[in-house]
Amino acid sequence: MPQLNPGPWFAIFFLSWAVFMFILTFKVSKLNNLNEPTSQNIKKNEPESWNWPWI
């Protein structure tokens, strides 16, 4: 059966995989994020004690 012969399609599969894994990942990783997260003023507040009227 000719579909079991890996010779003709393995090179095409490997080259297309290499394009997606190497070339396109470098192009995507170079893109800038337009909405950079801004650092917010992080302040830890002390928790307020609960008022337990039945105690």
UniProtKB/TrEMBL annotation:
<dbReference type="GO" id="GO:0015078">
    <property type="term" value="F:proton transmembrane transporter activity"/>
</dbReference>
<keyword id="KW-1133">Transmembrane helix</keyword>
<dbReference type="GO" id="GO:0045259">
    <property type="term" value="C:proton-transporting ATP synthase complex"/>
</dbReference>
<keyword id="KW-0375">Hydrogen ion transport</keyword>
<dbReference type="Pfam" id="PF00895">
    <property type="entry name" value="ATP-synt_8"/>
</dbReference>
<comment type="similarity">
    <text>Belongs to the ATPase protein 8 family.</text>
</comment>
<dbReference type="GO" id="GO:0031966">
    <property type="term" value="C:mitochondrial membrane"/>
</dbReference>
<keyword id="KW-0066">ATP synthesis</keyword>
<feature type="transmembrane region" description="Helical">
    <location>
        <begin position="6"/>
        <end position="26"/>
    </location>
</feature>
<keyword id="KW-0812">Transmembrane</keyword>
<dbReference type="InterPro" id="IPR050635">
    <property type="entry name" value="ATPase_protein_8"/>
</dbReference>
<keyword id="KW-0472">Membrane</keyword>
<keyword id="KW-0406">Ion transport</keyword>
<keyword id="KW-0813">Transport</keyword>
<keyword id="KW-0496">Mitochondrion</keyword>
<keyword id="KW-0138">CF(0)</keyword>
<dbReference type="InterPro" id="IPR001421">
    <property type="entry name" value="ATP8_metazoa"/>
</dbReference>
<protein>
    <recommendedName>
        <fullName>ATP synthase complex subunit 8</fullName>
    </recommendedName>
</protein>
<dbReference type="GO" id="GO:0015986">
    <property type="term" value="P:proton motive force-driven ATP synthesis"/>
</dbReference>
